[in-house]
């Protein structure tokens, strides 16, 4: 698969318009008639990381909401390592 065909397909697929793989393939094929089958693009699209798809196809808020939360433990904090005070 030539890099420029994948770049065109990727730019069409990774938008919040959520175009299907077949539609992106058809548009790419109109620009580059000598490209591999749609299945080849499906296989390559399946290698796109989940969080990249989430960010570009669902939006930044969905991406931020899906990020795992950080689990903290107090085991590494010794006595008097952290102080809190109220200032008025």
Describe this structure as you would to a colleague.
With 88 residues, this protein is mostly helical. 52% of the residues lie in helices and 0% in strands. The chain contains five helices and no strands. The longest helix has 11 residues, at 3-13.
Please supply descriptive tags for the structure shown above.
88 residues; mainly alpha; 5 helices; 52% helix
Give a nutshell description of this structure:
The protein is an all-alpha fold and 88 residues long.
**Elements, N to C (H/E):** HHHHH
Amount of helix: 40-55%
3D shape: elongated
Taking Cα atoms only, what radius of gyration do you get, to the nearest Å?
22 Å
State the major sheet: none
Poorly predicted runs of 5 or more residues: none
What's the mean pLDDT score?
A: 88
Strand content: under 5%
- Class derived from helix and strand content: mainly alpha
- So how many helices? 5
Number of strands: 0
Terminal CA distance: 66 Å
């Amino acid at each position: 698969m030539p890099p420029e065909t994948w770049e065109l397909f990727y730019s069409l697929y990774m938008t919040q318009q959520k175009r299907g793989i077949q539609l992106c393939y058809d548009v790419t094929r109109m620009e580059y008639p000598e490209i591999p089958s749609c299945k080849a693009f499906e296989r390559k699209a399946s290698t796109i990381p989940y969080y990249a798809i989430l960010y570009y196809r669902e939006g930044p808020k969905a991406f931020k909401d899906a990020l795992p939360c950080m689990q903290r433990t107090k085991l590494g904090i010794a006595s008097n390592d952290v102080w809190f005070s109220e200032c008025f």
